[in-house]
Amino acid sequence: MQRLTATLALWAGLTACAQAAEPITLGLNYPRTGSYKEEGLAQMRGALLAIDELNAQGGVLGRPLRLFSRDTASRPQKAVKNVDKLAAEGAAMLFGGSSSAVAIAAGKRAAEHGLLYFGTLTYSNDTTGKDAHRYMFRECNSAWMSARVLGKYLSKTLPDRRYFYITSDYTWGHTTESSLRQTTHSEDAALNPGLRVPFPGARLADYQDALTQAAASDAQVLALVLFGEDLVRAMRIAKDLGLTERMQIVAPNLTQSMVEQAGPGLMEGVIGTEPWTWRVPALERSSRGEAFVAAFSQRYAMYPSSSAASAYSIVYQWAEAAQRAKSLDSEALIKALEGHRYQLLKGKQQWRGFDHQNLQTVYAVKVKPRAEVLKDPLKQDYFEIVERLDAEQAAPSLAEWQAERRAAGQPLTLR
């Protein structure tokens, strides 16, 4: 009997050890194909680096991490199906995406599974505004935060100019255009006209038609509310029409990969915003951020973009929340995240409690001349930071957030 008891105890101990060592699965729901695939690739690289680093430190709660991924192609319906598949495969948390429509749809389905969803590149105000819920956390800034820093810079350097807007026809495009119109005082559509192009699936003819109308206008500023390959296509047509010489081009949300795809010669002088560039850690005196830049550059022979930094940060923030909560339970993690202040790859940041928006500094950037870019060893020193705005000035207030929720018929607290 004693031998049987000892055998059972040994078996139970071995089983417990095996369970403790069972990997924790993180689910990356990202665009491997489609217009935003370059931003998706950067997210994959950032996530893998973070997971490898954490595993080298012992994992999370004594268990190693592993990454499962699914391609969204930046299509909301596909992203929702991916959530179901990743949940069935045992994912403990979901993250990723470069389209706000994807993040919003996938986040809502993740909530039905009781899983947290961290948005990487989802700039629509709606993500943490009218469509916000308890299971969604947005790591990047909102369209309103981008518009405020852009408005500050443009009002100072290009006051009283007329604008022409060309906008992707979905939630990110709509809220970004609306926000930028407010902060640049270009709300009058008769003086500052705009056109929308389909997303996804815009044709070159759609951009040709829209940009031809822009060329026929008397606007001095061309606001291309486009992202990823869509922006690159539009910029090539704008160049052919001579618009890059006679108009100031503004692309509200720029990324490193967009400049890489188009080339710094074509993108020279374009103004936009970034929540992070590889130059930011030195600017903000973040030793951890500089270590990330060095590790990423050594591993991939390129500088990390804001897309990579976002995915990397999300993995670390989820992992640290799990360590604080001593649990993978979503409700425990929400409590560990809400109001949490930290510093990782830049200055101070915080997960705001009432809307789950990440509060952080936002930067207005301008693409450097090609000759300056080529002086860099990796030839990827694309951005000059021309303005910065702290989170307290950039993010909407509780009163503004509640007003937006009330107008949309949504509850004034996250559900």
From TrEMBL:
The keyword Signal applies. The keyword rRNA-binding does not apply. Residues 1-20 form the signal peptide. Keywords: Signal. Residues 23-368 form the Leucine-binding protein domain. It comes from the Bacteria. Belongs to the leucine-binding protein family. This is ABC transporter substrate-binding protein. The lineage of its organism: Bacteria, Pseudomonadati, Pseudomonadota, Gammaproteobacteria, Pseudomonadales.
